[in-house]
Design goal:
Layout (H helix, E strand, L loop, with lengths): L1 H20 L1 E2 L2 E12 L21 E3 L8 E6 L5 E8 L7 E5 L1 H7 L7 E8 L2
Parallel strand pairs: 2-6, 3-5
Antiparallel strand pairs: 1-2, 2-7, 3-6, 4-5, 4-7
Amino acid sequence: MKTLRFIAVFTLLLAASACGSGKNASGSFYKRHVEVSYYGDKFNGRKTASGEKFSNSKKTAAHRSLAFGTKIKVTNVANDKSVIVTINDRGPQKSGRELDLSKSAFMEITDNKNHGTLKVDIQLIK
């Protein structure tokens, strides 16, 4: 009986620690340490895959499969700066990249304005 109780308690503790490991106050981690880039200015005014007009001054992003309207928190792993963006387009076109951020979202979290890519953590907000 003691062994069974120990196994039950151990299993509950293990499950509780696993549930908390990928979450924080903002939501669950979707991906960690992935590469993102940003849209060039030439895309301003063009239609996105969601039908919205693209603007580099809005906080938006392109992702290959997340639903349009999904809000995500993007955190630069180098400096811990974060921005919340809304998915409104499909992309990025370059393999190995997880997101294309609008320029304003990218510039909000970078320390080096001359870099075209960042390593980030992505959390689902809703």
